[in-house]
């Protein structure tokens, strides 16, 4: 018997959806990110306005003072859609799990100097309440913001913050016992060092404009908190005092911040480049929330740095300004 | 001059790589076959790490290329930043 192998190439009739093709031009193969983002926001056939906010449509771009001709101008440089996002985080979670295993199995937590351990518990565990606030805020931006390109990454950010709250809780449980969580809650509720930050978080809950909330949470607060706590304090100061194990336990936060800030910068840059009015509005918001965040974080930095807190914070603010200048917002 | 080529599986991982190669090598011809992209170029073809990173928004190790690589032809000149195919005369 004789068999002939023959290759047949099949030309696809079309490479992507029409609405995606209209945006990227021509019938080209589109990325999953483009297909999972463009024009997914529901826009038509809303007959009734929400009873809880009759001034606006259910999905309404005018909830924000930021004006965009096209809300799909935003682009997530990480190109996260559901698949890419979950894969990336699953990989990071594996790393985090093995870090926790490493620290636990070798008893590194028990080897930490007592004073250092106390500092870590006092500084890191109450931060889980901040992360919970960030979770709420990002869910709110996703709910009230407009356009999938802008809102989609916010719900990922929201989930990430929930994960961070859980990691911080585990750090507490690894270094101490269940009562460290109660102590941290008590500190968060009544310790003077935390009241400025708590006020900031609670005030952000009532910010109505989704883009202002984005600035207050993702740009200003995270933009100062993460470099200050996880880079300046944990990775530099505490590691030098024998707290390398702590740096391992918070590796996710350091990596995560490095990654998400690219997205935050891209978002700010796109909005600021759209119009002079947007730029002016962003400058006003960012300066306002940056100054508030800096004041709120100073007493928190003192927990670990005592006298060095002012200098460290000043450094972080300086870096923040440089970063935002690159994104087109002069502060 | 003779032709070099690189053939990659056509999937979500290679899309930004193909885009980067197309942008960096104006002489390249893209042939899209089912499940495969074959890129032919006269003389030489360069894959640049920086151009790929620009498109995926994360760090990229050029060795990751091999996961989706089907075949290539030409002498390889490889550094951390670039992979170049050409025929050493």
UniProtKB/TrEMBL annotation, chain B:
Q: What Gene3D superfamilies does this protein map onto? A: Monooxygenase component MmoB/DmpM (3.90.56.10)
Signal peptide positions are: none
Keyword Hydrolase tagged: yes
What's in the keyword line of the UniProt record?
Hydrolase
Question: What Pfam families does this protein's entry cite?
Answer: MmoB_DmpM
UniProt GO molecular function: hydrolase activity; monooxygenase activity
Q: What family does the entry list?
A: Belongs to the TmoD/XamoD family.
Name of this chain's protein = Probable phenol hydrolase, subunit P2
This protein's species is Azoarcus sp. (strain BH72)
């Amino acid at each position: 018997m004789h068999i002939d192998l023959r290759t047949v190439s099949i030309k696809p009739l079309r490479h992507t959806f029409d609405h995606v093709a209209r945006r990227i031009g021509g019938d080209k193969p589109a990325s999953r990110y483009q297909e999972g983002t463009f024009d997914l926001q529901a826009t038509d056939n809303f007959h009734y306005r929400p009873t809880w906010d009759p001034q606006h449509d259910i999905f309404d771009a005018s909830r924000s003072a930021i004006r965009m001709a096209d809300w799909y101008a935003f682009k997530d440089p990480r190109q996260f859609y559901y698949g890419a996002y979950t894969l990336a985080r699953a990989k990071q979670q594996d790393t985090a799990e093995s870090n926790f295993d490493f620290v636990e199995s070798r008893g590194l937590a028990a080897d930490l100097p007592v004073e250092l351990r106390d500092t870590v518990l006092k500084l890191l565990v109450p931060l889980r309440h901040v992360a919970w606030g960030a979770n709420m805020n990002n869910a709110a931006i996703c709910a009230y913001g407009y356009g999938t390109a802008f809102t989609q990454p916010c719900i990922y950010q929201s989930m990430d913050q929930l994960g961070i709250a859980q990691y911080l809780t585990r750090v507490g449980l690894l270094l101490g016992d269940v009562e460290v969580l109660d102590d941290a809650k008590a500190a968060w509720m009544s310790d003077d060092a935390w009241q400025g930050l708590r006020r900031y978080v609670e005030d952000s809950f009532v910010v109505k404009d989704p883009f202002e909330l984005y600035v207050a949470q993702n740009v200003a607060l995270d933009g100062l908190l993460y470099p200050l706590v996880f880079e300046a304090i944990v990775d530099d100061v505490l590691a030098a005092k024998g707290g390398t194990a702590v740096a391992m336990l918070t590796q996710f936060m350091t990596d995560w911040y490095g990654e998400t800030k690219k997205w935050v910068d891209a978002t700010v840059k796109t909005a600021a480049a759209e119009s002079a009015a947007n730029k002016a509005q962003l400058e006003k918001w960012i300066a306002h929330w940056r100054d508030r965040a800096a004041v709120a974080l100073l007493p928190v930095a003192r927990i670990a740095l005592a006298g060095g807190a002012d200098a460290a914070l000043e450094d972080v603010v300086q870096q923040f300004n440089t970063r935002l200048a690159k994104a087109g917002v002069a502060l | 001059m003779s032709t070099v080529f690189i053939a990659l599986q056509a999937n979500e991982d290679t899309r930004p790589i193909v885009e980067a190669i197309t942008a960096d090598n104006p002489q390249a011809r893209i042939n899209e076959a089912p499940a495969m992209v074959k890129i032919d170029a006269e003389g030489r073809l360069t894959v640049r790490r920086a151009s790929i990173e620009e498109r995926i928004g994360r760090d990229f190790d050029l060795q990751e290329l091999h996961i989706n690589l089907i075949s290539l032809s030409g002498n390889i000149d490889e550094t951390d930043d670039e992979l170049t195919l050409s025929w050493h005369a």
